[in-house]
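Tip: read the tokens left to right.
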């Protein structure tokens, strides 16, 4: 006698509209011990803080204690726990061998990476949601500023989204040094974020300043921060997709287009959205330089570490859209075309106000950052050309960057000790020039950094010419495929129904 199973009324299956990758990551993530322990511990600590605040009956002092506890716990959950969980997101798939199983389905690299990021952010929003009742209890203890807290929660959520996207994008690299650097960077962000929130919530903080200033005074900073966080996170998330993508996927063009648009937006905000009577004064210059660098550095890193793709199908969309030769050279995947892109967005930095008022210092700072990214690329490409290797290993590039940085720091310390605080040769290397900014002569630093740029260009340009020949060969093959697609329907027409007798 067979017994029919009783159907469950609980929603055990997630909707197919969420996507298979997102459903997979949510099922696995919500069952892990790390998430369960962090979620239960988060709730338990906040509950203890609430009970202690009400038992003490300390009035505003208890309210401040509870409020600080809530913010500290949220910062730990959104800025530490969530990004750290994404540090092994892609490397785990590569090491376990499940990436190949995902790639033989219809899931492309961007869908895989995006699903992992959305799943982690869904879990992070659970922390944010369960903290809302504690903010409500905080209301009964007094001293609550609803608009200020909502604005801070939105900024904290945006910062968590961007930071998690960056960590997931870098998780495809197998470099141990990179993982240690990312973990240390996240650890240093905790006190900075807590101090930043305390500053914003202070009586003289940003959100309190809004009530005493006009809309034209503060909206450029807020919009610039949102743009910088979104573009930086999205660029590195696309970089992670590029590390696991096949040769038939192009993840470079979208990053370059978005970076160009974002850089133009930051320049316009800095140049035309500043009021002479602004309450923020001259801090606008430094703030918008920071926003520009948040966009500029990931864009440059993505361009100079990009390999030319072997598949000719990549170039067909460019031919179909009839882009000009200059447009193709800017947007084609590959580091050789990325050199033109690097020159373009570097020149866009000159539109910032700081470069008009402090031209020499601004250009020197730009050259230092540019050389910091180009010099390891030149060394890596030079070693590749000697070994006749075409594709760049990004882990080798990062190791080269770390090695040059350590060597330049040692050189600066040694030279400063030998010359009694008057180093000269250190101005040739980007990191030592940045460390010894106050000790080195400004004109000498500018000249030597320009010389370093010329040396990197002398190494990269001849190798880039060879890469251009490779791209031109693929472009010709893509044109033949595109012409065959246009001719095929005309050369092989469908038979007329009368000819077939139907």
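Filled-in amino acids:
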């Amino acid at each position: 006698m067979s017994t029919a199973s009783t159907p469950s009324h609980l929603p055990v299956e997630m909707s197919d509209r969420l996507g298979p990758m997102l459903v997979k990551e949510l099922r696995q993530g919500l069952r892990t011990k790390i998430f369960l322990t962090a979620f239960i511990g988060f709730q338990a600590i906040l509950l203890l803080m609430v009970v202690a605040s009400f038992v003490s009956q300390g009035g505003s002092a208890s309210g401040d204690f509870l409020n600080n506890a809530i913010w500290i716990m949220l910062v730990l959950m959104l800025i530490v726990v969530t990004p750290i969980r994404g540090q092994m997101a892609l490397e785990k798939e590569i090491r376990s061998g499940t990436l190949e199983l995902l790639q033989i389905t219809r899931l492309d690299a961007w869908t895989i990476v995006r699903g992992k990021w959305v799943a982690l952010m869904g879990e992070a929003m659970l922390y944010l949601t369960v903290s809302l009742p504690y903010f409500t209890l905080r209301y009964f203890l007094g001293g609550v500023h609803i608009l200020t807290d909502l604005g801070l929660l939105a900024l904290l959520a945006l910062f968590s989204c961007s930071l998690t996207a960056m960590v997931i994008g870098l998780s495809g690299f197998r470099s141990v040094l990179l993982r240690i650097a990312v973990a240390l960077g996240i650890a240093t962000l905790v006190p900075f974020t807590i101090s930043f929130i305390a500053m914003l919530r202070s009586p003289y903080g940003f959100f309190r300043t809004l009530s005493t200033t006009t809309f034209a005074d503060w909206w450029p900073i807020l919009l610039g921060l949102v743009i910088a966080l979104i573009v930086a996170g999205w660029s590195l998330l696309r970089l992670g997709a590029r590390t696991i993508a096949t040769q038939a996927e192009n993840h470079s063009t979208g990053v370059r287009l978005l970076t160009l648009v974002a850089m133009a937006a930051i320049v316009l905000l800095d140049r035309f959205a500043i009021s002479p009577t602004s309450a923020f004064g001259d801090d606008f210059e430094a703030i918008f330089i920071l926003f520009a660098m948040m966009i500029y550095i990931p864009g440059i890193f993505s361009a100079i570490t990009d390999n030319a793709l072997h598949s000719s199908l990549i170039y067909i969309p460019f031919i179909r859209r009839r882009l000009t030769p200059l447009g193709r050279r800017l947007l084609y995947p590959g580091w050789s075309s990325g050199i033109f892109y690097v020159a373009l967005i570097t020149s866009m930095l000159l539109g910032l106000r700081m470069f008009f008022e402090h031209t020499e210092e601004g250009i020197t700072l730009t050259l230092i950052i540019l050389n910091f990214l180009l010099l390891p690329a030149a060394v890596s490409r030079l070693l590749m050309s000697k070994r006749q290797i075409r594709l760049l290993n990004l882990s080798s590039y990062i190791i080269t960057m770390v090695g040059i940085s350590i060597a330049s720091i040692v050189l600066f310390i040694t030279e400063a000790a030998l010359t009694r605080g008057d180093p000269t040769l250190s101005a040739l290397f980007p990191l030592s020039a940045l460390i010894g900014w106050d000790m080195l002569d400004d004109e000498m630093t500018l000249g030597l950094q320009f010389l370093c740029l010329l040396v990197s260009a002398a190494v990269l340009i001849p190798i880039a010419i060879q890469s251009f020949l490779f791209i031109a060969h693929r472009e010709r093959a893509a044109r033949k495929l595109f012409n065959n697609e246009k001719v095929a329907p005309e050369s092989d027409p469908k038979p007329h129904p009368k000819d077939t007798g139907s």
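Residues 301 and 373 are 7 Å apart (CA to CA). The longest helix spans residues 442-491.
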